[in-house]
Structures are given as structure tokens and as C-alpha cells.
Amino acid sequence: MHTLKELSWFFRAYWKRYTIGILFLFLIDVLMLWPPRLIGETVDAMRNSSLTTQDLTRTVAILLSLGVGLYAMRFAWRHLLNGGALILERTLRERLFAHLTRMTPSFYHRKRSGDLMAVATNDIPAIEQTASTGVLTLVDSLFMTLLTLGVMVTVIDWKLTLAALIPMPFLAWSTAYYGRLLHERFYLAQEAFGEMNDHVQQSVSGVRVLRAFVQEKEDIEAYRRVSEKTLERNVSVSRIDALFEPTIAIIIGFSFLIGLGYGTYLVFTSAISLGDLVAFNLYLGLLIWPMFAFGWLVNVLQRGGASHKRLSELLVEQPDVKEVAHPVTAETPNTVEARQFSFAYPGSEKPALTDITFSLGAGETLGIVGRTGSGKSTLCRALLHQYELKEQSLFVGGVPIEKLSFAALREKIAYVPQEHLLFSRTIAENVAFGRPQATEAEVLHALKLAEMSNDLAQFRDGLQTMVGEKGVTLSGGQKQRISIARALLLDAGILILDDSLSAVDARTEEAILRHLREERAAKTTIITAHRLSAVQHAELILVLDEGRIVERGTHDELMQQNGWYAEQYRRQQMERDVAG
């Protein structure tokens, strides 16, 4: 019942649909009480030899009319209640998806992809069942039970009714006991399903690595263990699930036995008629569905409750970074500034960046280099405001980042991350992802700037070539260049390339950088790289080490300093000359 209470917001929003559906259910339950009484009266008339052809015809006509009417009303409530539940499922999916898009990277560090998929694919349908089957069984079993018992007590015999209900307390106890076990086991089963989803997702994504390290058998064995765990937990749910109907059937069987035995005695003592006994047993038969429905209701509610708990645990999560209530408009375009900026990842005591200071004017290029793990990508992510930052330390367009709206900040910045994610769509759709309204000419121009035109000509379908899951049909360099083209198509004031030229050769890199200088003369560019030739044209180069700036200046100034930058540049030039 708690789950239905939690969903009250939805029932209030669609109260007309549910009210009409429940009204049809009530009418069906009322009309279902008529046939047993008609049959009982017919039996008594036959026994008394008073049944006429006209009476029998009238009874058959009434029963046929009831059948047609009940059919129409059953269609109506199914359309209303089940349709409403499907609306709930769609609403919850949209709410979950919107919530996931708002969450920051730290949320995805804590949550497994498999668990998130399990909530969307398994838990939300279980909640939908609560809003359809749960409401149906609750209302129908309650109405049918009360109405049927009322007729049995008032029309047939209250003593016979009371005797037939003796086994019912055992039904209440057993369903409550099974329901508690079902809730616990279903929650664990859903968790196991999430683990299995997560394993499959990682195996499919990393299939090349698995094959490269010849780990197919080990991964299959690991999957077998996860799937067996999922199977065991689902079987434990099924064991409890399987006990519901037999338990209810046994208890109802005892009710029939008592009703038939005691009812026969009442007939012999003339306390009730034979027709009353026939009607009573038919009414008792009408109680079979409510009793089964009651057990089913407990089952559905417990499953829905466990699933709703898992969904709620996700939806109550709040993003680490909250948008400012009253955002400010940027004063100057395309400028970036850091003032003694320091940052530590959530949950980490060691700072990832310490005392970072620089100023980048419109149209300038900033190069960021350093050893692996020195903080280059962290600085790029900070500029995107993916994490909570120290106030008044990072500025875009002369305004502190924390005072800009998310939309305004991200409209200003085009970002190409190290991990190049392409969708299982065409090349054109991937490039135009940020600007779906872009023309084919604009897409082709962006690909030309990213030095992808020659590769594109080799594809049979050109722009309409499907790139496969995560760009599986493309090389690493092709994926990088399509990602760069996607960012260039946005024509944002600030472009961040986070080591986005690592998979292309030196000649292609030089051509791309030349295109960037020509096309983005008035716009700002930030480039992080391991290959120093990618940043040697920058107006300012920062060398990071353990999150601190250890060298800064132009390429010529850094070469004169004869530090890490100069040493690394000479080594890379020697390697290039030897390779050439």
C-alpha cells in the first residue's frame, strides 16, 4: 500500500481516467452478483415444477445481455487503467532519463551502468504493474469481496457464510508472511540483475581488449558466475511466488468443503432451499478471484515496492554542481581566466590542481602540457563546471563560472574529450549532433577542417556511412577527427581539445592546427597534448606537474628556459626525425 501512496501524485493527475475505470469495475462487480441469484431461483423453480418456458427464456436473455454488457465494461476499464499505467511508465522513464542527464560525473563514478539499465528496463515496468494490476486487484477484490459477502449474509444465510469464512484468517497470515519474503528477495534479485547487466555492458564494450589479452574463457566463466547468482536469486523469488496460488487454493478448498457440508445440512433441515445452496456455492466461487487477487496484490505490491525503492534511491540523488538561481550574462566574449585556482576531486584529500593562474584573451590559444596525471584534463573539466568549484577563481567572459547558467556556459564552449564517443548513427548525424539543423555543406566544411574529407571519399555511402557502436568501424584517428568536426560545427567562442590529436599523424595534426588558426582567428582555443608540436604556436603554454604550474611562456621562451618542456620537445623532434 505504501507504493500506491507514493504514486498518489500520478493518480491525482489522472483522476478522471482512474475514477471512470474504477466505476466500471464497481458496476461489473455488482452485475456479477445477479447470475448466481437467477440460477438459484431457476433451480428452485425446477424443483417445485413451476419453471415455465417464458421464465427460462427471460433468464437466458438476461444472462446473455449481462455477458455482452460485462464484455464492453471490461474493455473500458482495461483501456483506462492499463492505459494509465503505460502513461506512468512513460513518465517515469522520462523523469529518470532527465534526471540522469542532469547528474555530474561523480554520480556515474558511484553508480554502475548495469544498475541504471536494470532500473529503466526492469524496475519501472514493475512499478507500472502496480499502477495497473495493483489498482485492479485492490479495487476489484475489495468491491467483489464486500458485495458478495453482503449478499451471502443477507440473502442466503449468515451462519453458513460465517462458517465458510473460518479458513480466511490463515489466508491473511500466509499472504503477509509471503509478501515480506517476496519484497526482500525481489530487491536482491534486481540487484543481481543489475550486476549481470553491468558485466555484459563492460564485456561488449571491451571485447577488443578481451580478445587482445586472450581472456574470453575467463570472462565467460565470470559471466557464468554472475548469471548463476542472478538465477539463484530469481529462483528464490519464484519459490515464494509459487506458494501463493497453492496456499490460496487450499484455503478456498476448505471454504468450499465447509460451505458444501454445512449447506447440505441446512438444506435437509429446510433452513435454506436447494436453490439457495446452489447460489451460495456460486457466490463462493465468485470469491475465488478476490482471494487469488489478494495474493496477487501482495505479490505485485511487494515487487513494485522493491522497484520503487530502487528508483527513488536514484531520483533523490542531487547533482554535486547546482545551477545558480540568478545567472549573470558574460561581460566580454571568449576570454578565460584562472586566479589561484585549486581543486580536489570529491572524496579525495589530495588536490588535483593547486594555485593555477593564467589569463587568456579572445582569439588566443592556450597550450597545456605535462606528464600523465599532471592535471591537464582536470583543468579542462573544471572549465566545463562539471564539479563544485571554489568561488571567484575561474572566469569565462569576465564572469565567475559559478555565476553563469549551465546553458550559457556550454553554449560558449565546444569540448572534444580524450574519450571519443560516437553514436551508432551516420557520420553526418554524429557531426551534426550539437547542431541538428546544420546543412550538408556545413557538415562537409567541418569535416574538411578536421582533415576528414579524404577518408570520407573512401566510404561507399559518404556522409551516410554508419559508424557502428561507439564508432567501431572507424580507426582511432578517424574517430578523433569526426569528434573534432562535431565541435567545430558548433563554432563556439571557446574550443577545448583535450589531447584530441593523439591518434593522428604529425602531418594531419599540422593541417588541422593550420585550419584552426585560419578559421578561429577571433576565437579562443585551449589544447592539452602530449605531443608538444600541437601547442608550439600557442600564445601561452603551461607546463603542469602534480597539479602545479612549473613552467609557463611561449614556445621560444620555454625553449630558452631549458626545462622539462625543452627537453621533451627535443626528444620528440629526434624521434620524429628518426621515424621520418
UniProtKB/TrEMBL annotation:
Keywords for the protein's UniProt record, in alphabetical order: ATP-binding, Cell membrane, Membrane, Nucleotide-binding, Transmembrane, Transmembrane helix, Transport
UniProt GO molecular function: ABC-type oligopeptide transporter activity; ATP binding; ATP hydrolysis activity
Annotated localization: Cell membrane
SUPFAM superfamilies linked to this entry: ABC transporter transmembrane region, P-loop containing nucleoside triphosphate hydrolases
Membrane topology: Multi-pass membrane protein
Membrane-traversing stretches: 20-39, 59-77, 135-156, 162-179, 248-268, 280-301
Span of domain ABC transporter: 336-571
Main location class: membrane
Keyword Cytoplasm listed: no
Domain ABC transmembrane type-1 positions: 20-303
Entry GO CC: plasma membrane
Designated name of the protein: ATP-binding cassette domain-containing protein
Protein's organism: Brevibacillus agri
